[in-house]
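Researcher: We're reviewing a set of sequences before deciding which ones to prioritize for further study. For each one, I'd like a predicted 3D structure that I can look through quickly. This is Response regulator transcription factor. If possible, include the structure in token form so it fits the rest of the review sheet.
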Amino acid sequence: MAAIPGPVHVALLDDHALFRQGLRYILQSLPYVETVVEAATFAELLAQCRQRLPDVLLLDLQMPEVDGAEATRLLLAEFPDLKIIVLSMFSADKFITQMMKLGVRSYLPKDSDQELLREALEAVLLTGHHFTPSISRALMRAVQQPTRQQPTTLPLLVQLTPRELEVLHRICQGRKAAEIADELFLSRRTVEGHRQNLLEKTGAPNSAGLVVYAAQHGLLPE
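Model: Here's the predicted structure for Response regulator transcription factor, in token form for your review sheet.
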């Protein structure tokens, strides 16, 4: 695994003290995490971010004053580089797709184990996102459902190389760069290069956008 860049500052926003304390204990056991700050309210978190912007925020969707979606909108409007990972009890597609479209970097259920949390945190720090099979399935179902107003035009289908299609299919299946590299007998750097080409060719902002593009153009793996 590539080295995590620099000491990491993590923030937690959740109104349950016991849950925050458990997360803090897990995060502080990771060698690259330097500091962990807790906030029970959005106002408290906002003040902390203005004092020192965290590298990653672990965000609960259900808050008493500001819900997770509104918190995300406000935070990313002021701090566009903030990396947000949602931790939520809600696993329905509508919550996952809404938050991914708002710009969060991953979406995990609150009953995730310690290993999945570590994996998500490291992936977000290294690649900017953590793309799980659950996120992939939710986005695919969202774009496949008929809507009352279908868009009149879709982005033109770009010309992808056979290798780019192989990488795209595995991204849609929730594979990580290291897994794709192993399966296709490529270096991780080469896989990241193909992923960047896919983003540039399709205009997708992230891997979630690549899944949406693939579903819209009939490029999903069978």
